[in-house]
Specification:
Length: 769
Amino acid sequence: MEPENSEDCPCGSGKKFIECHGREDFGEESEGENFTVDTDAINDFIRSYDKSQLLSISAGLQLSPKNHGKNIRLEEFTDDILRQGIKSDQRATYEDIQAFFEKHLRFDSMEDPTVNHFVENVVFYGGNYRVLPGINTDATEILSGFLESIFTVDNSLSDTFKEKVRQASFLILLISETMINQTGLPRYTIEDEDDDPVFVPDFEALKDLISAVRFEKPYLEKMSIYWQIPTEAINEFLINDADLGESHDPYESPIFSRPFYDVGDEIICIVPATLSKAIADYIKRLSTEMGEQQNLLTAYHNWQWHKFLEYANEMGWSETDINLPEAASPERFMESVFRIDQDKLAYVQLIKGTIGSGYDSTGFIKPIDPSAPKQETINERNDVVVNYLNALEKKQRMKVFTLFVAGGIGGMAMFAWPKPKEGNQTLFFSFSDFEKIIFEGGLEPLSLWKFAKAYGRAAQDTQFMPAASSLDLYVLYLENRGSMLPRDEKPDLMTFMGIGTDYQRSVISYRDEHAARRYSDSKPIDVPVRRGSRYAPIYRQQQPTSENVKLVEDYVFPCWVVNQQADNKAQHSQAGLYTEAVAFWILKFANVLKSRLNKIGSLPVEIRLDLDKRLLNEMNVSDWPEDGLPQLLEFTVEGRVITVEMPLALIPSLAEEHNQGERTIMRTVLSGLNILLKKNQQEMFTEAEIEKMIGDGMAPDNAKMILIGNSNDNPILDTRGTGFRRHLYEADQALVDDYLIPNLNLPESIPEVIKTTKEKNKLCMTIVL
C-alpha cells in the first residue's frame, strides 16, 4: 500500500513521500538534467590542474555541512585525483571549480541517507575533539569505545601498545579539532541532506576550507613536540600510490585508513570525514602487529559489560546472584541474570564479537572453537538457561526475558532466534543500538519486556515482516503508541531500514556527551559528562561515583554543584534533590549573573553543599527542629570553591508549600559568588540586586525544586512537569479488551449485566483467585 503524500517516505530520506519517491517525475531525468557520468571530462579536468590543489579542493568541500551525505562522490573524486593527478603550475580558478561541479558528480546511486551528525565529539586527553564521521555508521562510537576500553578499564594491554595508541590518536584528533575549529561548527551539527550537486561555497569561504585541510610540516612538528608525540607518528596515516590497489572500493578504500597525503612542504588531510575510522583502523592494525588483538578484544568486551551494568541500573534492573548451569562455550559470551519484576527475570547475554575489518564483515559472533570437546551455540545456551530459570521457583514459574546484545567491533550484526516458549520474551540488539535506547532515558524495568511482547504478538498475529534493525522496530513501536499492531490511523504498518535515523540523532544530541574541566586534588582534569535532566541543560558525570555532581555550562567557566557525603544509593538520590535545585537556579539566574561572573575567567567554579547528615535520611516529622530559618546560611570561599553549610533547620521550611527555604539557599550561594567577584576585583552585586534576582527568578512563591512532604496529603506534589509521566497507551487499552478477558479462563462467562453487589463481588473474587 502506497504511503500518503504527507507521510514520511519509506526510503528513510527524512522527506515527505510527495517530495521523494512519490514525485511524479521520480526516477526520470528532469528537463535539462543528465546524471550520466562523463568519465573522460572528469579525467581531463583532473589532468589539467595541480594535483595538490585538487586534493585540497575535494577535501575542503567535505568540511561544508551542505555536502553531508555526498561523501561517496567526493571520496571517489579524491581517489581519481590520487591515481591520475599531476604536479603542475596550472591552478583551477574559482570559476573552473564552480563550472566543474555544476556539470559533474551531481549524483551517486550508492549514497543513502546518513545516520550520523555532520560533526560529532570524542573525549580524550585534553578534553573534546570534534570529528566528522561522514557515512561511517557508529565510527565515532567505535573509536570512543576503543579509547575508553584501552585507557579507562583495567586490562592486560602492554604499556608500549597503549603509548603508541595514545600518540597516534592524540595527533589525529588534534588535527581534526584544528580543522573543524576553523569552520566554527559546534559538536553534533546536523544538516538536512539533499540530492543536489556538490555544494561549492563562495570564494572566500572555499579558500578558508582549503586552508583548513593543509598543514605545514613545521606546524605539525611543533604540535608533536609540544604534546610529546613522535614526529613520525603521522606516517601511519599517509597514503602512497602503491596502497591504492587496482580500483576504488567505496566501502573500504585505503584512503579511509590513511587519509593524509604528503606534498613536500605540506601534508593534506584528503578525507576529513574518515579520521575517526582511520584511528580505529590503526588501533586494529597495531593490535595485530603487536600480538595484542585478544587483549584488545577482552578489554573492549569488559568495557561493554561494565557499561551494560550501568545501563541496567538506570533501567531499575537488579542483578541477582543466581548461579547458572555451567556453559560449554563460556569464551563466546558474558552473561548475568537480573530481576525486573516479582515474577520476571532478565537473562542478558553479551555476545563476544571479533574485530570486523570490512563493511561486509558479519563475524560479530566469536566462532566456536573447533578443538573444544563440547560445543554450544548461542541459542542452545539460551535454552539451557531459560529452562533453568523457568523452573527456579517451585511455587511460581518465573517468566524469562532474554536480551541478546552483540558486542562486535565493526561489521554488521545479524542474528535469528527461535520463538520463545510460552510466557517468555526475547530481543536482540547490537550494543550500539541498545545504547541509543538507554540514551533517551525514562526506561522502566519492564519497558523492554513490553516491547518484546508487542514484537512477538505482531510476529504471531500479523503478516509482520521485520525488514529493519531492532532499533528501527523499537522506534516504530514508540511511534505506534506502544504497539506493533495496525491501528485505524496506520492500517498498513510498514517497517523499513532507517526509520530510526532521526531518533538516533535526537538522543545523541540530547545526551550531548563531552568533557568539562574540573579540579581534582588541586589539579585540572577533563571529566566526561552527559545531560542528566530533561527539562534543562544540567549535566552529570558520565561515570557513576559516590559524589552527587551537577554541571551548568551557561557561563565562560564550568559551574559544578557537588555533594560528597552519600554512603549509599538512597542517600545519593536524596543529595541529588539539593544539587539539582542549586544547579537549576544557577541556570535560571544566568542571564543576570553572566554580565559580571563571566569576567572572573574560565577556570572551574565549584559549589559544595555540606548537608547535615540527617538531611540525607528519612526522618519523622516529630524529629524536625523548631529553630527558625536564618536569612543566610554559613558559607566559606577558598579559591574558586564555595562551601555552603546546609543545616537541619532547613527541612521544616522546605516541606512547606512556599520556597523560602530554597530562597535562603540561593541567597547564600549568590553571596558566595559575590566573594568571587570581589577576589577577582570585579563589581559585586548589591543586596538589593540579589533580592531582586531571587524575587524575579524564583517567582511565584511556590516554585520549588526540593520536594519534601507527605504524598498521602497531596499525591501530585511535583507540579513542575519534571517527573517521568506514565501513560496508558491506546494499544494497552485494546490489549486489555482483546486479550485479558478472553484469557482469564473463568469457569463461567462474564454476564452482560451485573444486577447486584453480591454478584459483582463474586465475579471479582473469581477473577482474583
